[in-house]
Each structure stands twice: as C-alpha cells, then as structure tokens.
Input
Amino acid sequence: MMLRHLAAGILLTTTVTLGQATNSTVVINEFVAINDSGLRDKDGDFSDWLELHNYGTETVDLTGAALTDSRKRLAKWTFPETKIEPGQYLVVFMSGKDRRSGEKTLHANFALRGKGDYLGLIASDGETVIDEFAAKYPDQKKDIAFGILPDQAPGQAENLKRDFLAPTPGKANARPLAGTVKPVKFSEKRGWHEQSFKLALSTKTGGATIRYTLDGTRPTPENGHAYESPVDIAKTTTLRAAAFKKGHKASAPSTRTFLFLNDIVKQSPDGLPPEYFPFTWGDNKVDYGMDQRIVNDPHYAKDLVKGFHSLPSFSLVMNLDHLLDGEKGIYANAEWDGREAERPASMELIHSDGKKGFQINCGIRIRGGFSRRSSNPKHSFRLFFRDTYGPSKLKYPLFGDNGAKEFDNVDLRTFQNYSWHIGDKERTIFLRDQFNRDLQLAMGQPAARGKFYHLFINGHYWGVFNTCERIKASYGASYLGGKKENYDAIKKGRTYLEDRKMSVGVMANDGNLDAWGRLCDLAREGLESNEAYFKMLGKNPDGTENLDYEGLLEVDNLIDYMLVIFYGGNYDAPVSAWGQNFGPNNWYGLRHRKKRDGFRFFVWDAEHTFRDVREDRTGPFPAGNHYSSSNPQWIWQQCLDNEEFRVRVGDRIQKHFYNGGVLTPEKVLELFQERIDEIEMSVVCESARWGDSGYTPSGGRASTERRPRTRDDDWAREINRLVNDYFPTRSEIVLSQLYRHGVISDVTAPAYQLTSDKSQVEVEAENGELFVTTDGTDPRQIGGKPTPSAQRIESGKTSLPAGKPIQARAFHKGEWSAMVTISE
Amino acid sequence: MKKTLLPLAVLAIGLSIPADLFAQESRSNSRRTSIPRPFLYAYPEKPGESPLAEVRKSMLEQFDADKDGFLNKAERNAMRLATKKFSDERHDEIRRARERRGGGREGGSPKPPERWLAAYDKNKNGRFDGDEWDTARGTEIKNVTARYDANKNGKIDDDEKQRLVENLKKNNYNPYDNYIRTIVAGLRGERSGSGRERRSRWKEFDTNGDGKASREELASIRKHESQAQEKP
Output
C-alpha cells in the first residue's frame, strides 16, 4: 500500500476551502471496512465508517469535497455543506445509504471493501487528491480500524505510518493492538443433553474477561453477563460468549446450543412466547410452541422422541430484534429482500449421533416468493457466508460425500403450497420439491441436492426444513468445473430494483443473458433443419463438432429435465398452469461461457407436482412466444420440429422409462422410500409444531380449536395415495402423453437378458432386424442410415459377450426403434 | 415398493382405517381442477387398461394413413402436428377469452376493468401508472371491506369473504382474475389487524415495554389466564 498525502487548499482568513489548494490539514485518520460489532449508525446497523481529522489550526470547509473508491470516478460522493473545526474529528458512515442533507451523521453512497480497495479524499474541484490509499489499502480485519499511528507530528503527511488499531471513532487514534483475544472455550459439547450440567467458559488469553448472553444477542463489553463461575445449564440454552482485553481485539463470539428434549416438547404449550421472544412479529402471523395434543398422545410419544433424533438439527442463534421486531426484523417483514434485509447470525449443525457438526457466523435473509406472505408463520431462510461475519465459505459436506464441500450460501426451504402451516393440508407430504430434484439427480443430471433438518431458533423449535443448493455460478464451478466468474446462471425470477420496485422476467443471477438470447434467437428462427438444430449444439449438420459454432444447449439435459417435469405433472414449472400456460415460472439455467457446453436446466420449487395421476403437462404451451416469457419448455417445443431431436427424446425415454430406469414405477418407489425413511419420524415433530397452524386468510377460528394435522391421519394418507395410486401408474400415463408428440417409435426397442452363467447378453428385436454396436456409437446414423460399424442381424436375435457396453436398435419397415444401451 | 407398502399398511391397520377409505380418497383426489384438459383422446378410466396401448389405438385410427397398423415417421409427424394445432387453437381460445374479460396479451399487464379505468385512470391513457394503481387498489379494498363487513368489526371474516367470492362469481368474474386476486390479497392484508390486536392484548402484561416476554411477564400472564378460567 502506498500512501500519499497531497497538500492542497486555498487559505482564507479563518476558513480553508478544500478546493484546488495547498496545505490542507485534513486527513483520513482511520476507517473500519468490516464493522461487525462496533459503531452503529442511527438505524442500528454496523455500517462501515471512516474518520477525517483536521490537525490544523483553521477551520476547513469540506463542502463539495468528495470521497471515492474509484479513481475513475473521483467525485463519487460529495460532502454537503460541512465544516471541520481545528482538531475536530468527523465520522462518515460508508454505508451506501447516501445521506447528505438534514442528517446529523453523513452516509456515503458506497461501502468499503474488506478485501482492500482504493480510497480517496478529493478536493471540491473534483480532481485534486487530498489524501488517498493507492493502489489500495491492505486486506482489512473485522472490527479493527486502519489508521494513522498516534504520536506522529502532524504535517508530515507523506511519511505518516498507518497500521491496524483499536477503533476510536470521533477521538484520537489508539495505539496499535497488542493482539487478538483467544476465543472462548466451552467445557461441554454442543448438541443433545439429558442431564443438567455446569458449563465452564475459558480463554487462553491471560487477563481477559468473558461475557456471555442467553438471548441471542452478541456479547460486547457492554452487553451480556460477566462470566464469573460455571453456568448452570438445565434446559435448552443458546449461549454466546466472547472474551475481551484492553488494547486487544475481542475474540469472535462463540456460540453453543444445548438441547434438552424434555424441555423442547413442552415449549410454549399455551402458545405464549418463550422467554426473550416478542409477543408480536410485526404484522406477520405469530405461532409459538409445541401442541400438547401431539406431545401427550401415547400413539406419538415415542416417535416424537425418535423424530427429534432422526434428523440433524440446525440451531440459528441471533438477536431476535433482527428477526422478529416489527420495525427492523426480517421475519416480521418477510417481503424484504436484498442485502439490506440481511442480518448477522450464528448457525450450528448438530448431529444426534455425535458426528461432528459446525458453528459458523453468517448472514441470514428470508427467501422465497409465495411463502413470504405475512399469513405464513413459517418462512424460508437463506444463509450467506461472508468475511464480514466470519469465514467467507462454509466448508462442510452438507449434501453428503458426493456433494460440494464448500458453499457461499445455503437455502433452508420451508414447505409452502402443500404444508400444514399455509398450504393444502390434505396433500402435505414435505417431499414434492425435493423428490423431483432427486429424480433429476438420479437420471444422471446435475440437480439441486437437499436434505431434511430440524431448525431451532434461539433454542425454540421451528420445525422441519429442507436444505437446497442454489443454482448459482458457484454451483457450476463446484460440479461442472471452471471458474465461477465464467458462468451464466439464469432464471425466471424477480428482483427488487433500487427503488424497491419489483422486476419480473428472465434474469441472470450471475453472468449475463447474452447466450440465452442467442439460443432463443436460433430457436425462434426454426430448428426443423439439421443445419439449424445442430448449429445450436455447436455442431455440423452431420453431428460432428464445429468449433466455429458455440454450444448453446445440452440436449440430453433438456430432455431429461422435461421428462421430470412431465412425470411430476408440474403445474408451475417451467410453464405455469396458474397463468393458463401463458407465462413461465420456476426454472433455472446454467452455462459456462468459455466451454462448449450448452445450457443445462434445473428443477426448482416443484411443489405443484404429483397431483392428478392423469395430469398432462406436455403441452405445447404458448409461454415463450415472447422473449420475456422464454423458458426451457419452449426450447423443447421448438426442438420437437427436428427429427433428430425426436429420435433422441425416444432414446432418453427408453433409458428412463424401461428396464429399471429412473422413471419406472419400481425405481421411483425405491427412491421415494428413501425419502420416506428419512423424514417419517420427524413428521411427528412437524405435526406438534405446525400441525395446528392452519391458514386462516381473514382471522377465523383460533388454531387451538382445530384438529392438529398428524403423520398418520394426514401425511400417511397422501403418501399412500402416491405409493398405491400415483407412482405405479404414472409412468405409462406419461408415455401415453408423450406418444402424441411423435417421440415414441412404433418399433419396439430390443429386449435383452443375461444368460444364466452371466457370460453372454442375449439381445432380441421383437420385430424386424437388429443392429448392434460395441464401440459406443449409435447403430443409427444421423439421417437414418445404419452406422458402418454396426452389426446387422437379420434374424433379429444375437448373443454378445457380457461386460462390454452394447448399443442396439431394431429396424422394421424402414423405421428405427429407440436405442437400448446395455451395460450388463 | 414392497418396503414402502409394508410399513404403511401396518400403519393403516394400526389406525383401523379401512382400505376402501383410501380408495375413496384416491378417487376424490383425482378430480380435475380448473386447468384445461387436453387433447384428442380420453384417458382410460377403467383399472387394467393400458394408457399407452389405448392412446396408440386411438392415434392409429386417426393417423395410420396406409392402414398398416403402424405409424411411420411421416404419420407420427402428422400426429405431432395435429397435437400441436389442437393445443394452439385451444390456447388461442383461452387468449381471446382472457382478452374479453380484460386480460392482456402474453407478457403484458391485464387490462383493467372499465369501471376502474373511469374512476382511477386520471390521465386517461387506458392504464394505471404512477400512483393510480395504489389509489385504485386501496380504494377498492376499502369499498369491498365496507360492503361485506357485516359484523362491522373492521375486517372481512371467513364467512364474509365466502359471500364476497360467491357474489363475484355470480357476476361472472373469473375467480382467478388478477383484480379479484388483488382484492382478496388485500383482504388478507387486513390480517395486520391481528398484529394490532396482539399488541393491544399483550400491552398490559409487557410491563417493561420492550415487546418481549420476560420470565416475570410470562408468569403474570399465565397467572391472569388461570384466574380467568377459574371464574364461574
């Protein structure tokens, strides 16, 4: 870092104007770029700040002078009429809130970067640099100021030394910090406990004092209890502790949750708030406590206990004002979105079996669309891992060994349209969205993984939640390779503009929409010819690669994605039946801009599925005829004009709907059973927490008058409908729907079986000849001729050595069957 | 599959729920909703019928031009185009119906009802811009609330809302019309009253005025409610 202090200023008799001038006596004395728990602004936010100091003997007029983080835009934020007296310190919040007039405190229109950035104080001429950090200040530390060392003679600006200091906003700078206090250690592990115990707190830093809180707030030198002796822990407790020592940076707060089952099942039995919780959540519907009709029901008592231990638990601990306060709580104002609606929190993962979990300080927001309404008492969350809170990534295999190991953010989904707290209670199974994502993953496609967890908020049980990976650029980098900066992550979504007005349509979460626009343009021009169709895939008309063309679509991925949509009878994605199929919804796409891969699509928010077993979502639908409503199903519909695409669809149908494929009844039921096993016991816990919640649009009956929804009377009934009625018949119904689109050949695909000694595979065409290859190629060439390397078996029946991949098609009356891939 | 059926069957037996109850539930669940039904053929309704075989049979009757009992590539394509044409025509009908009801073109905003335009479209440009929409929505919600709030408690209760929706239907409003949805959403917004009610209810017990439940305040509330229950 190179610091320059350029002398400037016009000397007046009593006031110096910070214009084109010499001898300015104002410097950037200190700043805090990662303010996590220090100085609050009047909104109660820990905004970044900087402090100017006039070390001279005359007043300096700052009016029109500027602060900037960009050398290309020196007058980024200009001071209103402001003077700084001799010896005075002036604090400016670098909050991005841009408050200049009528305010006692000033807020710049940008915030400071923790990773180091340019920072300059510019004279009122908009050009002259008074003080600057060029090329950039060093990486900053949380809650630590970077400023001028004390005891330096003023005026020797170019040689001023700066270092990390204890923040002293509005006062002379402190001496450099002697170090950071070691974190607080706990004598007991987080997690489930049965016996009361005494919790000892300690730090390895001698002479440090420890303070702790029990209400979720952050311990500070002023907040919380001073630790003097071990704390009695006899009930569910969330304890946050930090250590402090004069001249040292405080330790980061450590948080530990202790769960007592006997206590949890009795939480707020009458619906009154737990201790420290508010009576109201702004205008949001309030719901606390465990329904004692479930807790005390002998039929459920044992399963309730099993249920709490059947899933891992998240423990969210935070200042409840940030969550539930009517004025500033994000849960109480669930429609708030964006960075302004992000609050600091601690999240712990607790495994019942003693497996190691984690604790991480993070940011938290409310997520979702429909579920944000105030009549919903159980909102969804999104966690953000940033260096402003703690580690910039969560490093934990949250989705199992095959999933990503690092995360920038994680979703905790509630259940919406089919739930006991807001939706269709008769169809509540908690599995619809997750199971659709499971199917896509099982088909060999990337998909948003997820698991089920209990959630506790400051120790109060909040029900079962579903984690879900986000389809962002970071997802692409984790699973598909390359740098996340090179991904376009697009969706049909909504965003809030700066003026809080909502914008809806196709949008890029990461990257841009350029490639999507080109894909739509090609599709709109028509894909019937192989020239057009294969160009979209980055290929020549014969299917060979053409490096002059970009790959815009992963065809197999699109087909498999659509097969999941059709199988689930998805009402709300990627085309929404709620808008009579004129509009899109709930789709995500991902593409690496510098690779030859095309767009891949992801099942998202698939709650409106598995309803009527006869549901037909194959369309075609009008949504997509305009770019603003473009979506993967419209691309599919355009592709259907191409014969080669239809053949490929037939091949994917053959793969997934036959021979134990993912969408066969037996495989679907096998996969579904895994999810049933995962949540069956925990459904009792959800029933006790939310089974009596109900959705009452305009008040209505008190929830205590309602029969609580239960696992065996409600959840199991719908599960049974799916298991007994839907899944056994759905596959063939979908095939019948797809047949009308000309993607299923009337030539039956070859059948095959292993011989009894498993040395040979017998392959047989029901009608016509058989063509097989063993070199991985398709027996049928693009255009319909047999592949030269394919064996032609006129009898329609052959045996081949087992263990090598075999591709086979039947050929009858000039028509090909779907391709069978045998890997026995 | 076997694994699934067994525990759930045991569960059902344990609850003494007759098997035909599930069957009845299944039938009722399979009722259609308002989503338009496709297209060209009837789904097989009888148990044991194969949907794919039935559909193929139906398609052969319509598209097997050479009557060889087999759809070749050209015949399959004709079937595909017919399916597409049928769907396109059906959605054209829906689009026209939407436009007749005041719905807009794809990707655009629905056209507001004439009465609303007359009352709130101040600059007479045929749509709501600026504050016109907020004014229209707010005023209409107030009007509807005043009209249907039979018990005059300042909000639309469940029964009152039911009457409101029935009246709207009688007047040929599509219940999914955006404007009606807006009104209903607005009535849901009246739930804010519940927040006020709660604040009022707890105010006397929130002795330190911080809005949160302290141990002492909770004890006081529970004591109060216990005494209230004991009163004859």
Notes: The longest helix of chain B spans residues 73-100. Chain B touches chain A through 83 residues (CB under 8 Å). Residues 40-100 of chain B form one domain.
